[in-house]
Amino acid sequence: MTVSKAYADLERRGRIVRRHGLGCFVSPAKDGNREDEEFGTGNGGRTGDWKRDAGSNYGNNGEGERGQSRIPGRNTGQDKTGTRKRFGWQEDFEDYLPRAQLWRNFDYSEAEYSFHLAAIHSGLLPLKEIGEAMTMLVAKRPELMSAYGNFQGDLELREVMTKHLRTRGISLSAASLMITSGTQQGIDLVARTFIGPGDAVYLEEPSYTGAIDVFAGRGAEMISVPMDEDGMRIDLLTKLCDRRPPKLIYTVPTFQNPSGATMSMERRQRLLELARSYRCLIVEDDPFSDLYFHSPPPPSIKSMDRDGHVVYMKSFSKVLAPGCRMACVAAEGDILERLTAAKAASDLGGPLLIQLAVLPFISDRYDAYMKGLRSALRSRMERAAKLLKRHAPQGVKWRLPEGGLNLWLELPHSVHVGELYRRASRLGISFLTGNVCHVGEPSTNYIRLCYAQMEEEQMERGLLLLMPLLKESMTGTKR
Ligand SMILES: Cc1ncc(COP(=O)(O)O)c(C=O)c1O
């Protein structure tokens, strides 16, 4: 039996229990079967309630030993700042987002060489311009802070955003757009509006960790679809859907996070046809399409959508100012109305001040800025790739990305990724371990390195430190 089948079986039997901050455990069998006890403390085999079990196969450290994670710093409850209090009773106080603990269990605070976030170094972002616009607004229009904005977002900003969507082949009016606090909120709104316990959500394998968390929190049944260099394998998706019809398909078709793959045009069309035949939703998450290095990527799936199947999301925060949390969601008909209601229920509309602060930049400067950003990122990617080519040990594989922020490295199976992570973090190096990009977090031999998060020289120094470590991990030598 495969590990994932065993897991699914245990989950069906209500045998997976989660200890907050410690991970997931197999509970002792009701008949007292002792074989399970070595796997963890458990808490008495509570079963049945989707809320308890929601996503219980996520956030698991995957090693089955009393909260010992294969990822160091994880599930340890360490708090290096010493400011986080711990209360015993809270350990058993259940939440509905088991996997979202990922972020609190990775401690990246001391990373000198940060490769872990898909983020752009602040020196490349137009923070000064946006900051000045913000200061001006606060001084000249302080009343903005006293107003709730429109639930759908500021109309003028939405109108400006329609212009940018046209570059992705999407011709929609401002009435079909909603502004959200980043695409992360967009994914959350879709999930809370349309996904309930047991609904089938298909997604690429590997996929964006933050989306897995959200769907897990809704109790979705997540079904992973393998990918290749042309993106999600639609032939396999079709077969899987025949067995279990989809409610929603989540995809990052362009410069996918983490793999960097871009879905071919033919697959985009087939995916849309499939959604039509199953009358389901596609979430097209598109944070990276402006970050191409050579030629623009294929048009969005949304650009071909005639029946309102696609909810398209474009992040502006990622490329402008992540702290401003700015994205737009494009959807049509009833779907957008329901999402707007969810947005109102979530936060009564995004902050008007921030929307108006980013507006002038998105309106007038975005295209020229993007040109410069693309070339800066391309240069970083090429420098990173050059270093890897020269210093990566034999057996390490990667594909040169055509855009986006990440390198997705396949390591030889002899490398224990958790151990590599532990040793790298001792040198102040952080990266994303591939397992968190999978539903159920199986052991994998992939890591994701973001080449955009640091100054170029710092990034290079980090890679030069990491490569010998990688070599040692392959040969089993210890420092
Ligand atoms: C694929 C993907 N979707 C969504 C997000 C969240 O982006 P935002 O900052 O717009 O919320 C990220 C962030 O890394 C991402 O990689």
TrEMBL record:
Cofactors (names): pyridoxal 5'-phosphate
GO molecular function terms listed in the Swiss-Prot or TrEMBL record: pyridoxal phosphate binding; transaminase activity
Listed GO biological process terms: alpha-amino acid metabolic process
Domain (Aminotransferase class I/classII large) ranges: 139-462
Coiled-coil positions: none
Entry keyword set: Aminotransferase, Pyridoxal phosphate, Transferase
Pfam families linked to this entry: Aminotran_1_2
Span list, region Disordered: 27-85
Entries under Gene3D superfamilies matching the protein: Aspartate Aminotransferase, domain 1, Type I PLP-dependent aspartate aminotransferase-like (Major domain)
Family designation: Belongs to the class-I pyridoxal-phosphate-dependent aminotransferase family.
Protein name: Aminotransferase class I/II-fold pyridoxal phosphate-dependent enzyme
Organism: Paenibacillus rhizophilus
